[in-house]
Amino acid sequence: MDVTGLIARLRTARVVPVVRTRSAAHAAIAVGWLREAGMRIFEITMTIPDAPALIRDLASDPDLLVGAGTVPDTATARRCLEAGARFVVAPWVDATLSAPCRAAGAALMLGALTPTEVRAALAGGADVVKIFPASSVGGPAHVKALASVFPGVAFCPTGGVEPGNMAAFLAAGAAFVGMGGALVDEKSIAAGDRAAIQAAARAVL
After folding, report:
1. How many CB atoms lie within 10 A of CB 9?
2. Model pLDDT, residue 65
């Protein structure tokens, strides 16, 4: 699957679960429960201990589309891509991430908030522009304003996106959204509350 196909699959899914937990075990549990609920795309953040190993485990399943999130540098990007990540995400602009993504045929998402930052992200090789933190800078109205200036750009708002406002972000012009705590609530995971995690997933599927 090429980058165009990857982005098309992300658009179809509408939501990318952003898995950010304090332990790899909790992350694996979250992915398992979300998968049971019908989700097949996951962003594994580098704040999870030994995240590339988890990416490798998940990417071995051909039914899953796995990406790496909060990627701090090219060395980490390469480790994740070698492990099977099909997209790389950074909540800032880092043009050095473009080369390893291009070499691997993976999609790159770079973060931005302002028109100047969006231009910098696109110039830096972003296939998708991640709007982060989305809810604290104006929510759907902010995305709508950016989309009006950058028609055709794939925006992925993340940060404060939840089942109750996801539709508004998509209507405002988002290609798809990233959803973290609303889907991957670590208190629910620690408590073994599978039903709560899966109810949140079904609310956005």
Report:
1. 17
2. 98
Helices (H), the chain: 3-13, 24-37, 51-59, 74-83, 98-104, 115-123, 139-149, 166-171, 186-190, 194-204
Q: How far is residue 186's CA from residue 200's CA, in Å, rounded to a whole number?
A: 13
pLDDT score recorded for residue 125: 98
pLDDT for 16? 98
Candidates 112, 131, 134; CA nearest to 121 is 112
pLDDT at 109: 98
Residue 133 class from Cβ within 10 Å (0-12 exposed, 13-18 middle, 19+ buried)?
A: middle
- Cα distances (Å, whole numbers) of residue 86 to 49, 69, 139, 149, 174: 20, 11, 27, 28, 20
Catalytic residue positions, numbered: 43, 130
Helices 51-59, 24-37: inter-axial angle, 10-degree rounding: 30
Cα–Cα dist 44/116, whole Å: 28
Cis amide linkage into residue 100, ω under 30° from 0: no
What are 116-145's pLDDT values in tens digits?
999 999 999 999 999 999 999 999 999 999
2/5 Cα distance (integer angstroms): 5
What average pLDDT does the chain have?
97
